[in-house]
Amino acid sequence: MKRLGFILCCVVLTHGDLYITNPRGSNNRLNGNGREVRNNKRLFDSQNNNRGGYNVGDPMYYYEGSTLSIEWANQHSCADQNANCELILQYMCDDKIRDGRTTRTIRDNQDRNTGFGMHEEWQHYLYCRTRRRNQGLFLADQNLGRNDARYTRQNAGGTKRGYECPEERDYYPYWHHSPWKDIAVLTNDVERCDYYQQESFNVKSRWSCVIDRNQLNRYYRRNIVIPDNKEDCENFKIRGRSVGAQWTEFPAHGLPPPQCIKAPWSRDNHNGNGIGGNFNTYDWVIPEGIAHEKCVLRMRYNISTNDYDSWNTDASSNTDSDTDGSKIDLLKTFNFPDQETAEARGYVFQNNPDVEVFPDLDVKLALAINTAQFGRTFQDRSHVFEIRQRPAELKDVTIHNLNVRGKRGNNQQVYPAVEYDFVPNTLEINTNDFVHIQWTGSDRNPRNNAGNGRRGTDRNNMVMLKNKVYPEGTPGLAYGGLDVLGQYGANYPMHLDNVTRLIGASTETRAVLQKMALLAPPRYSGSMVLLDNAKAYYDVGPLQFAKEGVFHFMCTRNNAFTNRSQKGRIIVRDASSK
């Protein structure tokens, strides 16, 4: 039989990525000044392209009850017929969480070594590497190295990445306890929402076999495997000695079930826009009562094909050989007369099968199939941020977060990260709402990346745009008759006399506008022209918008017409008219 040297079908699950753009997703990056991530095993398994992610900046903070726009790019489709998709948003807060100071992967039992970055703590990984893996999972023809929860179809070699548990990473909802708290599930199949919400660890407790941590630290290198059921747990011994194993309930987080909604549409093979030409976002209303100085956000992107029934395919379809293929029956799917004919024609679920599409031709075509990636999970996580209680003066008000995404460089230099923009780019609020304006950046971008100001630096500011040019009496175009202050098409900022005249700014408001433009405390010198003397982090604090209208603004440093645009708008509507 001849074997043609081309691919019949480029299966979209071979290479895929997920990148959080706001808050800044790390993709395992810390503070490197190169384009590649220095260590993609530093904190977690992303499965992403190593050029993604943003350097750590000063910690951001968000108020309880405020709305944070989570923005991301996933390379392959959601809400589309080409792949099944779930996007899972979670967060975790703990005193031990840290970004760290080194890009090396944390070593065993180093919870207190603050030089290493850490999300999950050592005990989480310790139980993972000593707990029996789920024996009922479909592995296709992947041969796992051992029988503990470090080894999965996607991680057959049991590779360690931070203190993440590979089995917990790859599957949701997970059947053991997890430190991660669910925010939302965005799915192609909303009929599964009841299942996701009922099985969430937010609301449902989990049981596990628990052994004293000191005992585990003593024996874990001997590759012990702890049972995953009550009877075997209570009889468990190590080298003939009882170690006091107890079948223990881990209470649920005691939070509401995650929101479960239809996933936003995105196209295949494109890290970027959804419907309408914008990045997909989820507006997270940060719960009350969870204030903590050290929190982190996690997003996972689960995708699978329709080549087999993934929800009802289990270990009974596995095989012990990576040459025979799995036991998935493709006979009925492709209407062959018998299994022998299907196998002879190459219709076997295995790595890179050669299929005979035309029975009357002595030719086969190679399929780019990797059974470890049908389906597959990609991931990104934020750097550490803080959740704060509201001050008394903001107790009962609505707060929206307005941030900056992206990093220095042109599109080719920063990809698959993005260039600068405001998030949200268009923010719609009501009168008397507050907007918390805040951003951070890095001084360790690659020094030859394009941009203005001192090489390698991120800087941002906000300045009102030039007056509108519409004649008096012209309706407010798409803004429902609202008065328009400035416009997207302009590239000169409005000078302060016009700003104060149009919005009736007081001395206090004038000072705020000056701070946003010059990044107080300013150092008035030549380098201030490009904001070089300012810090990469800036916090304006919550500002109240009491006047109805549309306010356009720009960043003077990064807005370079024909090269890149960094502009935004806030649409303020009269709350009393609702």
Automatic annotation (TrEMBL):
Keywords: Signal
InterPro entries for the chain: Protein_DD3-3_O-glyco (IPR053320)
Keyword Signal tagged: yes
Tree of life domain: Eukaryota
Leader sequence residues: 1-16
Spans annotated as Disordered: 440-459
Keyword Signal applies: yes
Name this protein carries in UniProt: Protein DD3-3
UniProt organism field: Lingula anatina (Brachiopod)
Organismal lineage: Eukaryota, Metazoa, Spiralia, Lophotrochozoa, Brachiopoda
